[in-house]
Amino acid sequence: MIQGKLDQSQGLLEVDNSIGRDIKMSEVSTIISTLESWSDACENVLGTLQTQMDKANAERAQRIQRKDQLETEVVACYDYKYLIELLNIFQTLHVRISLDLPLISL
Fold first, then answer.
1. How far apart are CA 57 and CA 49, in angstroms?
2. How far is residue 25's CA from residue 105's CA, in Å, rounded to a whole number?
3. Which residues pair with 15 in a beta bridge?
4. Count of other CB atoms within 10 angstroms of residue 99
5. pLDDT digits (tens, 9 = 90+) for 13-69
6. 20 to 30 A from 87, CA-CA: which of 40, 42, 58, 106?
7. Where are the alpha helices (DSSP H) in 1-106?
């Protein structure tokens, strides 16, 4: 048994206290095997977490790209409508000028 503090940021276990345990030599290989299995399980969990983080980051990047694309399309659409409106105004003014009509009708 041990008692201590786990420092996750540095990946360390600081042992404050330990209680000795008598272990038979025949048990050492079983203990090593158990610890190796535990270590492998931890590595698998870390790998799964990394995969999930990578996927989340990729999805976030796609969402940002799509948002930027939509904003560009909205601005382009707005600019197009604005230009059509201006063209209509200029055409109306041109017709009024060519017909010698007042530019503003009341």
1. 12
2. 107
3. 4
4. 7
5. 888 887 777 788 888 899 999 999 999 999 999 999 999 999 999 999 999 999 988
6. 106
7. 25-98
Tokens matching residue 7: 């420092």
Contacts for 58 with CB less than 8 Å, ≥ 6 apart = none
CB 79 within 8 A of CB 86: no
* Angle, CA of 12, 18 and 28, to the nearest 5°: 85
**pLDDT, position 72:** 85
Token pair, residue 39, equals: 């270590």
Length of the chain: 106
Are 103 and 96 contacting, i.e. CB atoms less than 8 angstroms apart?
yes
Q: Residues 6 or more apart from 97 whose CB is under 8 A from it? A: 103
| pTM for the whole structure | 0.49
